[in-house]
Write a sequence for this structure.
């Protein structure tokens, strides 16, 4: 029983890790209707920049100069500033020229952006595995592990706390501030927002910067687990089912979606093999080992199942069709 | 509008460039280098590619090539992608004076090149990876996978475990889990380990992790539940780092956690650092740079400013760097052999194959090469393209790797039938009559 | 002056219904076919076959298939890689189980199998729409790849799950494995692609194509004018999967000669084929070819230019190539969001008016 609880907790925390990535998608989709495929590689780029600044890497040379290494309190704001610059550039060179295009075209442009990030990121910071040391706690939570034999990873608790803070801040930002209202107006109707004097450009820069900050948080959390390296960009694929399940436009949806997917896939991965083998025992022999590495597809099947009942995602805006 | 058309036209013209570039030059020993310095596996690909390139370049700088013939490296970026691998192969096979040997550096690419090798008459050296049954030289005339295959390695690692448990008979009732990359590469050892578990009576279970392996919590929860005595890791890329980190987190004893030789480099343990102390992995060569060959590389390349990748200087001697180096060493020896056998300095791929098949690098020769004690002696025969097949275990002490065991002979009684079965199946499907050796 | 419709009088319904109503188009197509069937084989060698023409043609076929589903019927799919895998693995099973089977029949069988699988995963398409439908196709993608790793029957119980092609003939010509002549392999792929492209061209301008497009433009409106959306979406899934299945079989049997589900048919393939149709032009047969040409040939061209032309190191060239590839995609989208096919159309419009621009 305890082990089931442990699986559920681990699943929930892993799900939150997915949500961190999905949040960035939601932010941008909400404000600009752009499906930002490059969110994963943005997380990589942000984390690479942070590591580069922390270790004093000179961009484009692949060499470190320890004299240039920045302390954490300076490196994080500077990374955020870099992400802001990136947001400005994206607005200036891409979004501005693609206003009012179809979703799929914008999506494709974001894919192009992904390639640019990949190439530039690698050239600037090199392609080695980099250790990201922000002093975040590592390993199992000792007290639970020793006294209750319950395994919960500390870094994931930190990630969960970060996600909670981010969601709160974003919710307050969207609901209570002037810019937040403008953001919601833009999300509702570009044209109407423009006509009451809201600057689309500024809004987009703000949203992309916010997504950059979320990307940094995601990059730091995932990077702490595996070292900062190219594979970090592939987490976008794990965030996709979360995003679809939660609905493209809902911030709470990203979190709830993450929890459902995380818990569901872990339970299935850990228990399904034995259960199915036991269920068919005597009929046909099934090797429980067949049901491993199921997580990738199961996340989508689970999302598909939910969508059959709510085609707009759990928290997505209802799709109204008129002729 | 015009500009756009021009761009398109230029792009089309560029595709035609490699054909025009094939003009006549003086003979050079042409070694294609199938690097992968980009993409998800780049952290592993870079050190190997540098070791491979540096050794050949050092021969050029120090000795003026091999027997006075310069070596020409032809790098091509595969990004560990089989489709780019094909393009690279076709592009480089006629480069310079004709490619001599391929080191495909990916199981997928190797499988594609195996049928091409016999047609194009260029041998393949898939060093310890690729198709294991290619060890049967009677069927796979053009493919070499010395010094040891995954199957030999799986068997050697089980022997190590047996030794630590106090004898092979003590394995009965023990639990050994395999955490593997869900791909052809990761599946390689499963059949061998299943056979061994029948033979020695240990309980075996294989747990797959999907590419890329960023998230493996479920796998490690299963391990926590099953509490295996030993874990084997057949991982690659980010999967290694995450697996080691997870093992540390669940406090699995690191000295009972053994990786394949692709899961045992500095990159893999670096994110865990000291916490990974005691972690083990397979090995067939020494880590470190305390060898004459390394000193020559530093002297003739890095200090002379002739290194192809000068920023790598501090990392010379890493495990994967040395793996690239040892591959280059064996291939350069095969070139020497080929020159001797055929009495010419202008060898072809087919002659290179003869050189590889007659390869015999013993300890005395290693000493002459400035690599005394660096690796195991290798002797190839017509029937056996795997060579010695012996594997040792190296350990991470928190700062560096070092070999901590003897070299274990694989259990050929179990492996040889598997090799014969798989290679004969291939021969039958492709209408190959095995050679008589 | 050279390219115009004036003076072209149609005197029969047949003349009104031909595929290419303008004579210059007909000549152009014939010229291209002549070059493809006669000219190109003259320069064909292993490099041109394996690195340029065969992948280009096969990806054109896959893009054509996806374009039927996404471009004409408006159903976004990211399951292409999975469907390619079904094609590849079913061709392997057919080749090894029935050694006497002609390659053409193998391809047909592979396509039919894939069409069935496509139908199955298309079932949710009535309920789920737009970007949300991506989840169904992604489920297909990941599930199929997983299945081919996990069930040994699909790869004939090989030690590793790699499948390797065996020598097979089509109409008496050896077309698979490296022993086959590159010219023969090229012509084999070319013939198949030409036949399928003509079939697609006819399909999309006929009854089916019009119904698909009506659904793409607005499925509720289409339903009101008497089109059954579910049936039409499912036929689009089936036809599209058939094309993709054949392409998958060709990738395995004729181009690569060996395959591994996740490596050869991974999610990257799904994206790649989607890029092709977006860059080439959604809802355009020509666009499928242009897109495939762009995505397949551009990286090779850039690489050759940077490495051989400018003498860059392979790795720097690769990084620049990735970046430039991204920049070019964005550039083309900004210049012409409707793809390369639309560019061609604009050129045609201008040609009609030339030399009088107004």
């Amino acid at each position: 029983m305890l082990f089931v609880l442990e699986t559920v907790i681990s699943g929930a925390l892993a799900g939150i890790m997915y949500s961190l990535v999905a949040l960035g998608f939601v932010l941008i989709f909400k404000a600009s209707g752009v499906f930002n495929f490059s969110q994963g590689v943005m997380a990589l780029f942000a984390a690479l920049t942070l590591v580069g600044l922390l270790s004093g890497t000179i961009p484009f040379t692949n060499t470190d100069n320890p004299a240039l290494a920045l302390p954490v309190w300076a490196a994080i704001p500077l990374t955020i500033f870099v992400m802001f610059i990136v947001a400005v550039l994206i607005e200036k060179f891409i979004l501005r020229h693609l206003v009012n295009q179809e979703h799929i075209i914008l999506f494709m442009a974001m894919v192009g952006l992904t390639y640019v990030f990949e190439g530039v990121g690698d050239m600037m910071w090199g392609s080695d595995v980099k250790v990201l040391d922000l002093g975040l706690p590592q390993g199992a939570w000792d007290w639970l592990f020793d006294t209750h034999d319950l395994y919960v990873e500390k870094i994931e608790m930190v990630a969960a706390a970060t996600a909670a803070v981010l969601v709160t801040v974003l919710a307050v930002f969207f609901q209570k501030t002037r810019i937040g209202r403008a953001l919601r107006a833009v999300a509702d109707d570009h044209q109407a927002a423009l006509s009451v004097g809201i600057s689309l450009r500024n809004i987009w820069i703000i949203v992309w910067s916010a997504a950059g900050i979320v990307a940094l948080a995601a990059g730091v959390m995932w990077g702490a687990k595996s070292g900062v390296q190219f594979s970090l960009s592939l987490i976008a694929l794990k965030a996709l089912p979360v995003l679809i399940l939660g609905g493209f436009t809902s911030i709470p949806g990203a979190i709830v979606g993450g929890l459902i997917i995380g818990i569901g896939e872990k339970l299935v991965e850990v228990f399904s093999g034995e259960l199915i083998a036991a269920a068919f025992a005597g009929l046909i022999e099934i090797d429980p080992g067949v049901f491993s590495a199921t997580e990738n597809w199961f996340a989508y099947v689970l999302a598909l199942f939910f969508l059959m009942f709510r085609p707009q995602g759990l928290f997505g805006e209802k799709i109204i069709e008129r002729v | 509008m015009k500009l756009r058309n021009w761009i398109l036209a230029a792009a089309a013209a560029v595709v035609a460039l490699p054909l025009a570039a094939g003009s006549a030059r003086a003979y050079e020993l042409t070694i294609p280098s199938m690097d992968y310095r980009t993409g998800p596996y780049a952290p592993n690909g870079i050190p190997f590619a540098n070791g491979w390139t540096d050794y050949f370049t050092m021969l050029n700088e120090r000795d003026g090539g091999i027997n006075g013939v310069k070596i020409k490296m032809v790098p091509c970026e595969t990004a560990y992608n089989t489709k780019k691998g094909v393009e690279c192969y076709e592009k480089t096979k006629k480069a310079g004076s004709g490619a001599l040997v391929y080191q495909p550096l990916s199981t997928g690419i190797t499988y594609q090149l195996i049928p091409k090798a016999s047609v194009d008459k260029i041998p393949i050296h898939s060093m310890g990876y690729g198709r294991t049954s290619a060890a049967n030289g009677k069927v796979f005339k053009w493919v070499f996978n010395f010094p040891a295959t995954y199957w030999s390695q799986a068997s050697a690692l089980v022997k190590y475990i047996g030794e630590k448990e106090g004898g092979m008979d003590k394995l009965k009732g023990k639990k050994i889990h395999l955490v593997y990359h869900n791909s052809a590469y990761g599946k390689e050892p499963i059949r061998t380990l299943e056979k061994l578990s029948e033979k020695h009576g240990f309980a075996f279970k294989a747990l797959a992790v999907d590419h890329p392996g960023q998230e493996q919590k479920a796998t490690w929860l299963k391990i926590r539940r099953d509490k295996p005595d030993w874990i084997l890791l057949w991982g690659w890329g980010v999967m290694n780092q995450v697996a080691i980190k997870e093992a540390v987190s669940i406090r699995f004893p690191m000295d009972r956690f053994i990786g394949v030789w692709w899961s045992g480099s500095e990159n893999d343990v670096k994110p865990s650092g000291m916490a990974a102390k005691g972690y083990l992995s397979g090995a067939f060569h020494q880590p470190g740079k305390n060898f004459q060959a390394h000193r020559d590389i530093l002297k003739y390349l890095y200090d002379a400013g002739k290194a192809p990748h000068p920023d790598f200087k501090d990392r010379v001697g890493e495990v994967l760097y040395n793996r690239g180096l040892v591959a280059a060493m064996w291939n350069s020896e095969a070139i020497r052999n080929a020159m001797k056998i055929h009495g010419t300095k202008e060898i072809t791929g087919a002659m290179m194959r003869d050189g590889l098949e007659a390869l015999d690098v013993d300890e005395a020769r290693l000493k002459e090469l400035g690599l005394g004690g660096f690796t195991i002696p290798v002797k190839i025969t017509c029937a056996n393209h795997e060579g010695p097949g012996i594997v040792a275990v190296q350990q991470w002490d928190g700062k560096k790797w070092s070999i901590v065991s003897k070299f274990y002979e694989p259990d050929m009684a179990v492996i040889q039938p598997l090799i014969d079965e798989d290679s004969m199946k291939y021969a039958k499907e492709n209408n190959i009559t095995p050679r008589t050796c | 002056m050279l390219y115009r419709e004036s003076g072209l009088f149609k005197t029969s319904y047949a003349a009104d219904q031909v595929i290419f109503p303008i004579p210059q188009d007909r000549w152009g197509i014939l010229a291209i076919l002549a070059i493809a069937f006669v000219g190109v084989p003259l320069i064909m060698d292993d490099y041109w076959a394996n690195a340029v023409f065969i992948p280009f043609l096969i990806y054109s076929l896959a893009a054509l298939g996806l374009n039927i589903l996404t471009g004409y019927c408006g159903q976004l799919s990211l399951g292409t890689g999975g469907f390619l895998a079904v094609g590849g693995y079913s061709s392997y099973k057919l080749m090894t189980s029935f050694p006497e089977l002609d390659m053409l029949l193998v391809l047909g069988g592979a396509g039919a199998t894939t069409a069935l699988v496509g139908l199955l995963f298309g079932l949710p398409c009535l309920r789920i729409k737009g970007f949300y439908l991506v989840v169904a196709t992604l489920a297909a993608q990941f599930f199929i790849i997983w299945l081919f790793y996990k069930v040994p029957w699909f790869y004939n119980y090989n030690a590793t799950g790699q499948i390797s092609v065996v020598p097979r003939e089509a109409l008496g010509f050896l077309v698979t494995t490296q022993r086959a002549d590159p010219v023969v392999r090229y012509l084999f792929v070319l013939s198949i692609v030409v036949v399928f492209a003509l079939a697609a061209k006819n399909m999309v301008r006929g009854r089916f194509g019009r119904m698909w497009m009506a659904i793409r433009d607005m499925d509720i409106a289409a339903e009101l004018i008497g089109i059954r959306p579910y049936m039409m979406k499912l036929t689009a899934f089936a036809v599209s999967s058939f094309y993709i299945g054949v392409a998958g079989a060709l990738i395995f049997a004729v181009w690569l000669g060996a395959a591994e589900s996740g490596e050869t048919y991974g999610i990257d393939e799904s994206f790649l084929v989607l890029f092709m149709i977006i860059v080439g032009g959604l809802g355009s047969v020509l666009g499928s070819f242009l897109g495939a040409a762009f995505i397949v040939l551009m990286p090779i061209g850039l690489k050759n230019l940077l490495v051989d032309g400018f003498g860059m190191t392979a790795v720097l060239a690769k990084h620049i190539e990735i970046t430039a590839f991204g920049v070019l995609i964005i550039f083309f989208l900004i210049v012409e969001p409707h793809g390369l096919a639309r560019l061609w159309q604009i050129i045609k419009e201008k040609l009609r008016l030339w030399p009088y621009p107004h």
